[in-house]
Amino acid sequence: MIEVTNISKSFENIQAVDRVSVTVKENTLFGLIGTNGAGKSTVLRMIAGVLKADDGGITIDGIPAFDNIEAKKKVFFIADEPYFFANANAVEMEKYFSTVYEEFHREDFYSYLEKFGLDKKRKVNTFSKGMKKQLALLCGICSGTKYLLCDETFDGLDPVMRQGIKSIFAQEMESRGLTPVIASHNLRELEDICDHVGLLHKGGVLLSKDLEDMKCNIQKIQCVFRTQEDAAKAMEGLEIVKQEERGSLYTLTVRGGREEAVAHFATVDTVFFEALPLSLEEIFISETEVAGYDVKKLILG
Amino acid sequence: MMSKNSFLVNMKENNKRRIWLWILSGLFWFLYYPIGMMMSIGRQQTINEVRGFSEAVAKERILLAAREWLSVASNGGHLVIVSLIAAVCAIQGFSYLYYRQKVDFYHSIPVKKSRRFAVIYLNGILVFLLPYVLNLAVAMAVAGINGAMNRDNVGIALAGLPFTILLFLGNYSLTVIAVMMTGNLVITIFATLIFVLYEPVVYSLLETFRQSFYDYYSYQSANRTFYLSPIGKTMEGIGRAMETSMWTAALPQLLAVAGMTVLFTAIAWFCYWKRPAEAAGKAMAFAKTKSVVKVMLVVPAALGVGCVIKDIIGETPYAMMAFGMVMAVVIGSCVIEVIYEMDIRAAFRKKRQMLIAGVFVAAIFLTFCFDLTGFDRWTPDPAKLEDAVVIFSEDMYQHGYVDKDFKVIDVTEYFLSKPGISDIEAICELSEKKSTEERIWCEVAYRMKSGKVIWRSFSVSEEEDELWNLIMGSREYKEAKCQLYDEEIYAGMKRNRITELIFDTGFREENLPVKDLDEFREAYLKDLQKADYSMLREEFMCGRVSFTVESGPKDRTVSRRFKYDIYPSYANTLAFLEKKGVYDGNYLDAEKVASVSVTNYHSDIYEKMFESMSPEEQLSIGSREYAVTKNFYEEGQIRELLQAVYPSGFDQWWKPEGVIDADYEVIVQYKDGSTHSSYYRGSNDGGLITERIPAWLEKETAYE
Fold first, then answer.
1. What angle do CA B625, B626, B628 make, to 5 degrees?
2. Please, which contacts does B161-165 make with residues 24 or more away whose CB atoms are closer than 8 Å?
3. Residue A186 has pLDDT above 80, yes or no
4. What is the distance between the alpha carbons of residues A273 and A263, in angstroms, rounded to a whole number?
5. Across-strand partners of B550?
6. Which pLDDT value is given to residue B675?
7. Residues A85, B608: Cα–Cα separation, whole Å
8. CB contact under 8 A, B277 and A50
9. Which residues of A touch B13 (CB under 8 A)?
10. For residue B168, what are the CA distances in angstroms to A40, A245, B158, B269, B368?
């Protein structure tokens, strides 16, 4: 488990990260969402042990992260612009990583390279940006580390590749408990792969929740009530996050489970009733609006 | 089996990233040593053929050519090249710290910081060391095949190794600090230059200020020892080795460079350990050092500008100097701040730092300007003074000194090794009479009871006969000045080959048997006891005894000549010379002289005419235009002239001004046609002692 406790980091006079606390549970896929400058990269660099937090602490399975070789053995960090040696090809990168990560899976690496159609003899500096990210991901996956920190790594990957990586993640998570942490500025990039999401804004954490929990605990209800009294009765006892009325059609976003909501509305006389699933985007909009933020501007561009 | 993540594996992987540096280093040393050696030998072989040297001479020349190529001392560029390679190796190894991408990569992988540092640091050394040593060995083999190696040459080549390697290590570790403290290549290069040059520049500035503002400053107190400059210390060591012809004599300097290397490496490691990853790409890696570095750069730069202004304008242009220094502080601070922030608009930020630098500059300038430390006012406290070593300009430039092992030793060092003058009263009186406008200049080292040595340089009137007699007549002064007093040194001289003992009258030289040296020494030291300032001032030298000592192996003999002036009151020495039949009371025998040529330069007329000349005439008309030369053949005139003549090579140092008439120059022609003007066998020119000039000479040489 990665435990980030109240960390802060400033660069000269700029506060990049301000008292952030996040917990990354093992064997989950953690998404770190935030706008440019929200502090995602800084948080990942601190988890990777590259940067030292000004305040607070980070532990990787209980081991302090900064400048600690035991912690680093558990983490592979893919920066937003991954670095490869000048004129090196995939084979040379593999050879290097094999000396550094004792559990580097060479066979898997070459097998993945082939699957992804990456030429192992071709110089990496002739690769496209997306290919470099794929190679960096493959290096990270095959490094044998428990945690894989990906900074904007999925941005720009085509859907096929994303799907491919997603399936490898699923496989690795199942086989050896890989825990990927993916930072992105685009929620849509992550919604189909993350188990848990942390939202960073202006250096601080707006929320950090399990996606399933979020999805199960918030419902979107569309209904038409027979009378105003029925409407008033239906609203009683509900935790309404958002309410919209268009003519006689009510659209309500309410906290609670689906069954609970359906049972509640069954007691009220409705002309029309429907419980709809919420997209991750809608959940975020609802959750952050409660906190007073317009999340559309923050993460949906 | 080698562990996957072992030190050696890390070294190998790191070297893969430095292949181009290995190739460059290998190529450079290959061209420098084996190819350079082949070219040097080839050139010498061609010269040998063209000049038709005998086989033995040709072989000797080839050996010499190879020796020069292998010697660190005879190849000044070698030190500069090694320093440059050290800088390149250091910067290339740690340059990843300039780039965020690379820092993220290297600092996130599970390799210990200490190991990463050690791997890069060690590889940087190997990149230089292996190609250097290998190619040196190949060059020695090339020389050997061409008959250009002997034991001496092997010794010279091997002696260069510690100098070169330690110089490399010193500069390499210094540059690593520069890399650690900066965040990009350009600033690192500046920082390296500053690190390498800072100490010499600061010393030189302080020296310039002391010389400029203190009347009695002695350059003897200048700091000639570098504490933080590997190249300065290495050059000091090479100088020492050359002086003594023994590389082991440079051991203290070599150890000092080794010490610097250890210190710099420790600092470099500390900086590496503390360096934040976010420093990549910034001008300075440590924010806290910014202000200190700025002040440390601006202060000497401003003082340097002050020196330049003083040099250009001369005299004491305090207002101009102050203005220049203020401008330098402002401009210097602005430029550094712009570099720090990479933003021209940042120029006038951090005004407090500018002010602090200005305060330092003002404090230093005012300290010198108004002698706030009381440097020039200082006189020794008799109660605290142990003794004093007095060295005159004549001692500095007229004699060469050796130690008991017959190695050349600096005059000051030699005088300081001897007991100083213990007549405290005389020394204090001398100090109180110090001036800058008198004729007799001396350097005085006051040795305090505390062990401190304080140097002052000043002049005292030549009329202070009594005081000068106390100083120059003291046994301590004479024992320091004349090395014949020192039994150990004399024994050292005799252990070598004394090849000749000569008495020189100024116009002729007579050989004495070398075995008579002891007898001469005994007589001379007896006479020297009576010598003092009055004697030197009043008496004219009547001859000089010298002997030559050869030292070193036969193919590299070093000759040194030791000279001892003889005055008329040196009765014992003169009796010895008379007994040996080489002294008859005259500089030369009038019977043997065919003619005496006298030139009267009429400097008084020239000076008068010079004032009335146009600037063009002043440039084109020299004093020679007014000179009148006459030859005298008559025996009577010759005898009279020879009574007045004083050999040009003899001492005039202590004589009152005008005792030797500077207007006259005399050249003697001998009857046998020989001029006796050979440098080694006496001279044939001289001046005239004013009071003995025949009355008719002025008329005979009058300007018409």
1. 110
2. B161/B133, B161/B136, B162/B247, B162/B254, B163/B72, B163/B234, B163/B237, B163/B238, B163/B241, B163/B247, B163/B250, B163/B254, B164/B72, B164/B78, B164/B82, B164/B132, B165/B129
3. no
4. 12
5. B497, B559
6. 55
7. 82
8. yes
9. 96, 99
10. 44, 81, 16, 18, 38
- How high is the pLDDT of residue A242? 82
Task: Enumerate the β-bridge partners of residue B629.
Answer: B599
CB contact under 8 A, A52 and B276: yes
Between the alpha carbon of residue B387 and those of residues A36, B390, B451, the distances in Å are 77, 10, 11
A151 Cα to chain B: minimum distance (Å): 11
Residues on chain A touching B113 (C-beta within 8 angstroms): 67
pLDDT band at B266 (very low <50, low <70, confident <90, very high): very high
Three-class DSSP category at B11 = helix
Q: What is the ipTM of this complex?
A: 0.87
Environment class of B372 (CB within 10 Å of its CB; exposed 0-12, middle 13-18, buried 19+)? exposed
Distance from CA of A297 to the nearest CA of B (A): 29
Q: Write down the mean pLDDT value for chain B.
A: 89
**pLDDT tier at A297 (50, 70, 90 boundaries)?**
low
Q: Taking CB atoms and an 8 Å cutoff, what residues of chain B touch A52?
A: 276-277
Closest-CA distance, A197 to chain B, in angstroms, reads 24
**In the structure encoding, which two tokens stand for residue B207, read together?**
């020296």
Supply the pLDDT for residue B398: 65
Give the integer Cα–Cα distance in Å for A284 and B189.
Answer: 51
* CA nearest to B15 within chain A: A96
Q: Do B277 and A45 touch (CB under 8 A)?
A: yes
The answer to whether residue B92 neighbours chain A at the CB level (below 8 Å) is no
Looking at residue B674, what is its pLDDT?
61
DSSP B284: B
Residue numbers in A near B99 (CB within 8 A): 83
> pLDDT by residue (tens digit) across A26-73?
888 999 888 777 889 999 999 999 999 999 999 999 999 998 999 999
B102 to chain A, any CB pair closer than 8 A? The answer is yes
For the entire predicted model, the pTM comes to 0.78
B690 vs B55 pLDDT, higher one: B690
Instruction: Using an 8 Å CB-CB cutoff, list chain B residues near A76.
Output: 108
- Restricting to A residues 67-126, those with a Cβ less than 8 Å away from any Cβ of B are 67, 69-70, 72-73, 75-77, 79, 81-83, 85-86, 92, 96, 98-102
Is the CB of B108 less than 8 angstroms away from the CB of A96? no
Which chain B residue shows the shortest CA-CA distance from A53?
B276
User: Any chain A CB within 8 A of the CB of B287?
Assistant: yes
- Rounded Cα distance between B233 and A285, Å, is 70
Torsion of CA B195, B199, B201, B205, to 10 degrees: 150
- State the angle between helix axes of B571-579 and B517-528 in degrees (0 to 180), rounded to the nearest 10: 160
User: Over 90: is that where the pLDDT of A159 sits?
Assistant: no
Between chain A and chain B, the number of residue pairs with CB atoms below 8 A apart is 64
8 A C-beta contact, residue B668 and residue B662: no
* Closest CA of chain A from B115, distance in Å: 11
Q: Which residues of B touch A140 (CB under 8 A)?
A: none
Q: What is the pLDDT of residues B601-649, one digit of tens each?
A: 888 888 887 778 777 777 777 777 788 899 999 999 999 999 999 998 8
**In chain B, pLDDT over 90 holds for what percent of residues?**
56
The distance in angstroms from the start CA to the end CA of chain B is 103
- B406 has a pLDDT exceeding 90: no
Region for residue B585 given its phi and psi (left: phi exceeds 0; alpha: psi -120 to 50; beta: otherwise): left
Under an 8 A CB cutoff, do B13 and A52 touch?
Answer: no
CA–CA separation, B299 and B343 (whole Å): 23
Q: Name the residue of chain B whose CA is nearest to A78's CA.
A: B105
Over residues B14-65, the pLDDT tens digits come to 999 999 999 999 999 999 999 999 999 999 999 988 888 888 888 888 999 9
